[in-house]
Amino acid sequence: MKRSLMPVVLSALCSMVNAADWSSRPLSELAVHPEFRALASVEPRDEAQLSAEVAGRVTALPARIGERIGKGAMVARIDDRQYRIDVRQAQAQLTVMDNRIRLAEAQLAQSESLAAQQFISADALRIRRTDLAVLRSEREAARAGLASTRLALEKTVVHAPFDGVVRSRSASVGDLAAAGTPLVVFAATGEVEVRARVPREQLAGLRGAGKWQLVAGDTVAALSIKRVSPLVNQAEQTREVIFSAVAALPPGVAGEVRWESPQAYLPPGFVQQRAGRFGTFVDEAGKAVFRALPDAQAGRPVAVDWPPGTRVIDAGRFALELPAGAAR
User: Fold this and answer.
1) Among 147, 170, 246, 309, whose Cα sits 20 to 30 Å from the Cα of 259?
2) How far apart are CA 24 and CA 101, in angstroms?
3) Backbone phi, then psi, for 171, in 5-degree steps?
4) Taking a C-beta distance cutoff of 8 angstroms, is the pair 268, 234 a contact?
5) Is 51 exposed, middle or buried (0-12, 13-18, 19+ CB in 10 A)?
6) What number is the average pLDDT over the span 186-211?
7) By the 8 A CB rule, do 268 and 251 touch?
8) What are phi and psi of 292, to 5 degrees?
């Protein structure tokens, strides 16, 4: 008789385990959002390599490395003596053309008067008019030549294109520069950009994060995405993402852009194996239901696309045992 009671007792104990007390919490309290990072640097929005536009010897280069220079200030000067001579020569050529035109106009007026009295032929009058038209065209060419020499003279002084700072110098006073010879590298000190190379597979999560930070030592600055380059770096399989910073940042700062994935992940402690399948227990209308997670791996968080209000069984989850047929 005592032996026959043993199965009943064991069955009662199993029922007690299966009906063990448990409690649940919403997914929003349990979910974790992995943090991603990408190396980043603060770059000036504009950076120019200022070069000589005309040939000549460098006579002045007041810009020093690290020195701030306002827009329009002189950065370098090229010897302008030959260019001043060219301007005077072009001006003299234009004066000559003006004098020749005045002479031709006087001759044309005289010819027109003689033609009215039939002292010269119509062909001779037409030649006078053509000569005057040619001279006027030559004057326009002389005026263009004068403008060109004046422009070359202006280019002997290199001006700062914007407010900035001298990053490096490639020339010194006394150097002989040809057109295109680099003189200084000039970086803007106004608006800056934070640039990071982000792996292609992380771009979707980056865009959906909604919150980004630059962390560089003790500096933490909030960011916002300005644009994403459509070009893919072939070697790294990354795309450059450009951020703007809320706070002022000096160019050259290097650090990391950090963001949290918008995808909710269930912590590994909630991933259990039942009936040969990985999953977790959730509270559905007061009943413990096992939800299978096909992508889950032991000891690793798993992504879930459940509503934040989904109640996941927390306390007592390890004692729950359900028939394999109940898993879904």
Assistant:
1) 309
2) 101
3) -145, 170
4) no
5) middle
6) 89
7) no
8) -75, 145
Token readout for 130 is 């053509």
> What is the DSSP-derived secondary structure letter of residue 250?
-
Alpha-carbon separation of residue 103 from 90, 131, 197 (angstroms): 20, 11, 71
What is the identity of the amino acid at 107?
Q
User: 239, 203 in Cβ contact below 8 A?
Assistant: yes
In sequence order, what are the beta bridge partners of 40? 196, 255
Average per-residue pLDDT in the chain?
87
2, pLDDT greater than 60:
no
DSSP state at residue 162: S
Give pLDDT, residue 285.
87
What span, in angstroms and rounded, lies between the C-alpha atoms of 102 and 99? 5
Looking at residue 278, its amino acid is F
Assessment of whether the complete model's pTM goes beyond 0.70: no
